[in-house]
Amino acid sequence: MSDLPPNEASVAAQVAAFERELASAKSARDAQSIRDRYLGRKNSVVASWMQMIGSAPVDRKKSIGRYANELKQSIETRWKAYEETARDQAPAGAVDVTLPGRVPGLGHRHALTIVRDQLESIFGRMGFAVIEGPEAEDDWHCFDALNMPAEHPARDMQDTLYLASTIAGDSGRADDLRTLLRTHTSSMQIRYMQAHQPPIRIVAPGRVYRRDDLDVTHSPAFSQIEALVVGEAVSLCDLKGTLLAFARQMFSPTSRVRFRPSFFPYTEPSAEIDLSCWQCDGAGCAMCKRTGWIEMGGCGMVHPAVFEAVGYDSEKYTGFAWGIGIERVAILRYQVEDIRLFYENDLRFLEQFPY
């Protein structure tokens, strides 16, 4: 800072110096730096003059304060004039290339994609093959081959979205077949068994569709992952052991699995899958509604009628199947209260999830 004592001459000298430096500025950043050197709160010319007041003799305090204020006002006036001139002279849309750049935001995988990849990785390590198939399906693969004939009440439960009618199909049936949006990925189990002989160990993830209203827990389009294992002497113990291994890798090393009797037309016996709550370890909390258990999906041993539909010997082979919702896993894993958040593309929500 200048050693000039605060007086009229030094005020004029500092103002003149400020004007010269400002005129030589090559960018807005340079000009701002010059302005801060004279008007900044700390270590600036004006600040140093203000600091002289405290240590000055009593008879000089008033004059130093007056000169310091005069210097401040003069420089502020010239700075405002400079800003107005620079603004008027700047071409429309001009960019100051000396300013620091804005780091662009980086996208990453959607929360549901993260969970699906984790599911596929877990079952891939268990030896399951991941398969995909058409979302527009025919009713033979989606229902008839899965032991759900035309009059079966399960078809009403699925609230199917039908598209059109076609003639015949991969099943080779001569009947009229209706095209629909698949209500589950179990249709891929049929397609795979038609093309392969046991042993079979597959998971089929994908989007499915039903006539559901969009609300906190339901969506007309959501994702499932279903599994099928077929071989000789495959048992219910194998099913439970597979699900237990999955739960302990996906949620908690202390997870437990519970089966509750249920009904599905393509499995017998059938069960609902419950996992012990990993937040309270089964003791009871708000997450599990104080029960200690969380419902995950359905499972069971493959019905002999399903094997007959694809030409398998039901006396020789047994198998198990299960299905869970990918959104269901994501909701529980990330403690999300509304399924609609996954579909609304709100970056404030989506940016919270790990890569």
Order of helices and strands: HHHHHEEHHEEHEEHEEEHEHH
- Name the strands of the widest sheet in spatial order: 1-5-6-10-9-8-7
* Poorly predicted regions: none
Please tell me how large the radius of gyration is. Answer: 36 Å
Percent of residues in helical segments? 25-40%
State the helix count: 12
First-last Cα distance: 51 Å
Strand proportion, as a percent range, falls in: 15-25%
What's the rounded overall pLDDT mean?
88
In total, the number of strands is 10
Q: Biggest sheet: strands, sense, closure?
A: 7 strands, mixed
| Backbone structural class | alpha+beta
- Shape assignment: elongated
If you had to describe this structure to a student in words, what would you say it looks like?
Strand 7 and strand 8 form a beta hairpin. The chain is built from 12 helices and 10 strands. The protein starts with 7 loop residues before the first helix and ends in a 5-residue tail after the last helix. The protein has a 7-stranded mixed β-sheet, with helices on both faces. Strands 2-4-3 form a 3-stranded antiparallel β-sheet. With 355 residues, it is α+β, with helices and mostly antiparallel strands. The chain has helices spanning 8-23, 28-39, 45-55, 58-89, 111-125, 139-142, 153-158, 187-195, 236-250, 304-309, 326-334, 347-350, and strands spanning 129-130, 136-138, 161-167, 176-181, 200-209, 221-231, 257-264, 267-276, 293-302, 318-325. The chain is elongated and about 110 Å long. Helix 1 runs parallel beside helix 4.
